[in-house]
Amino acid sequence: CLGRAPPWRGYRFAETALRALVDLRGCCIADSGRRMAQSDARGTSGHMKSTALDFFDCNAWLGQPMNMPFGHHGSTDFSAKGLLKSMDRTGIRRAIVWHTAQRDIFPVTGNMLVDKAVRGHGKRLVPCWTVLPPDSGEMGDLDDFFRRAGRAGVRAFRAFPDINRYLLRYDVMGDLLDRMVAARVPLILAVPGHTNWESVYD
Question: How many CB atoms lie within 10 A of CB 196?
């Protein structure tokens, strides 16, 4: 999870990223004053309940991927309902969710699809949007973009610079990253996978 890379890099950069991530409020909240509930204890809503750990998955996804994961066999429900069933089974209360169309088709299309998919599940599924370089104009006006993201309940962003063919650098993404840092909203990257450590350093 990265915000703007300050000119001195290093520890301050890591501190900014950590504070943004902590602001997600509960990726994994431990209550040391209580014992862990039995593994089969369930809440009234049907999902797994634990009095000691409240899990918040920050990397869940929806939608049929262009290329199925290695070793995948049989049919899978890639809808919000299918994801919720998996979360119930594994004891995850909430999740930040992105849509495979953000990576495989077009970020703006994927952002609309994830909004539609999580509608009605806001208490458990938190939408994550994908960003592009502001100068491309594909996200529209930045003020309007962040207003729409706020109304949609977006609490994190993702970037796929290698797939979308741009450089994840401050001179390309600076205005966008400055706003994210000011709002204390994290940028989630898959390293390696959708970018590389050289790009993160830059």
Answer: 15
Cβ atoms of residues 87 and 124 within 8 Å = yes
68 by DSSP, 3-state: which? Answer: coil
d(CA 128, CA 189): 12
Alpha helices in the chain (DSSP H): 10-22, 80-90, 101-104, 107-118, 142-152, 161-164, 170-183, 197-201
Q: What's residue 29's pLDDT?
A: 30
For 39-63, the pLDDT digits (tens) are 344 454 555 554 578 899 988 988 8
Residues for the chain: how many in total?
A: 202
Cα torsion angle, 186, 187, 188, 190, sign: negative
Closest CA to 167 of 135, 128, 129: 135
Whole-model pTM over 0.85: no
